[in-house]
Design goal:
The chain is α/β, with parallel strands linked by helices. 39% of the residues lie in helices and 21% in strands. The strands form four sheets. A five-stranded mixed beta sheet has the order 6-5-4-7-10, with helices on both faces. The chain has a five-stranded mixed beta sheet with strand order 13-12-11-14-15, with helices on both faces. It has a three-stranded antiparallel beta sheet with strand order 1-3-2. The longest helix has 20 residues. The radius of gyration is 24 Å and the shape is globular. About 3% of the residues have low confidence.
Length: 389
């Protein structure tokens, strides 16, 4: 932000952002209500709204009725101020969603990985572009309408090298120039984020972790991972691998000795993942494919709960979170019965006793988190009125 702290230009920018944040949080508001919530005078509030309207960030949307006196004009964020894209990548393809600045979905597209041959140059960037283009077309938008794009993938980007680690099962994503390739085909800044970290962002915004600054999200699905949030901040680690608990050695599990580099095998047959991921649950149930039915087999619920509790106890003993959220297919299939049994099994395994909840988010939490992250980035840019003052 340009300017000297305390000067009128800086105060104007701060007041503008405060008003915009209120409209994001509350939806349409009157000038009087914005003044009440910010503590600013009516003339100052009117000046703010005039500036934001002129900048294309705010628009009027009818009037408030049902109160004594004249009807009051309502103001809202202009949805067309900018747009963002969020993507979720998996071994079989990509799903892209485009949303306006308010977070309302405008377009969606799924592209399967087999849509392009493995030997096509810059294959991953082209698949991403195809997914985003499809979502933009559905929304009636173009690349110039995007301000930020966030892609969720298994594994994590090593901040030292820019290379995707811990995801050998995601071919084509390990190029050190991938960021540049994606930015070129999309024409917008691109962030690649760990998928479980994005699921945690979704839980913070609208899920079980609202109002919690210290929590762990344990994502138990075909693979196993965790997001660790301390003092409201995601813990990433030196190589971006914080939370890769699938590799964690536990009693009863062979060690995951598939390698130590960026291409270490996730299917090496060891670690916490080999005990609690969905293939392990199906194996415990004698090959029952449906996970909900697998949990109905005698002994499966108790055994999975015991294994989960053992792994979670190691995390809880080190991190001491307020809350542990269980997410992913295994958690959803086991439901509250699994949560209750894990809670019982944790007794005596770790001194801290965090709250334990099952995620209740609808839809794909990774996509939700990707959109939320993209919106945060876009608002930081578009809502900065110092560029126009």
């Amino acid at each position: 932000m340009a300017g000297t702290p305390g000067t009128p230009s800086v105060l104007r920018v701060m007041n503008d952002r405060a008003a915009l944040d209120l409209l994001v949080a509350h939806g349409p508001l009157t000038r009087t209500r914005i003044g009440e919530l910010t503590g600013l005078s009516k003339p100052t509030t009117s000046q703010i709204l005039g500036r934001l309207e002129a900048a294309g960030l705010v628009r009027t949307t009818g009037s408030q009725t049902g109160r004594p006196g004249p009807n009051a004009t309502l103001y809202e964020i202009d949805p067309g101020a900018t747009h963002v894209a969020g993507l979720s990548a998996d071994p079989t393809g990509l799903t892209a969603v485009v949303a306006d600045i308010t977070g309302t979905e405008r377009g969606r597209c799924r592209v399967e990985a087999h849509a392009l041959a493995d030997d096509v140059p810059h294959r991953t960037a082209r698949l991403v572009a195809e997914a985003v283009d499809g979502a933009l077309e559905q929304a009636g938008l173009g690349h110039d309408d995007l301000t930020a794009t966030v892609i969720g993938t298994p594994g994590a980007i090593d901040p030292r090298t820019g290379e995707l680690r811990y995801a050998p099962h995601l071919p084509g994503w390990h190029s050190r120039t991938l960021h540049a390739e994606l930015a070129e085909v999309l024409g917008t800044p691109v962030s690649i984020e760990n998928d479980v970290n994005l699921a945690a962002v979704a839980e913070q915004y609208e899920g079980a972790a609202q109002d919690h600054d210290d929590f762990v999200l344990a994502y138990v699905d075909e693979g196993v991972g965790a997001a660790i949030v301390l003092n409201g901040t995601l813990l990433r680690g030196a190589t971006g691998g914080a939370g890769e608990i699938g590799y964690m050695p536990l009693p009863g599990a062979p060690l995951a000795r598939g390698g130590t580099g960026a291409y270490a095998r996730e299917d090496a047959g060891g670690g916490f993942q080999s005990l609690v991921a969905s293939p392990a649950v199906r194996q415990l149930a004698g090959g029952v494919e449906d996970l909900s039915a697998a949990f109905a087999v005698d002994g499966v619920l108790d055994e999975v709960a015991r294994r989960l509790a053992t792994g979670l106890a190691a995390i809880v003993a080190v991190v001491d979170p307020e809350l542990v959220v269980l997410s992913g297919q295994v958690a959803q299939a086991g439901g509250d019965a699994l949560r209750a049994r894990v809670e019982e099994e944790l007794t005596g395994l770790a001194l801290p006793r965090p709250l334990l909840r099952i995620s209740e988010l609808d839809g794909d939490p990774i996509l939700t988190g990707a959109l939320r992250s993209a919106l945060t980035q876009a608002r930081a840019t578009v809502f900065d009125t110092s560029r126009t003052t």
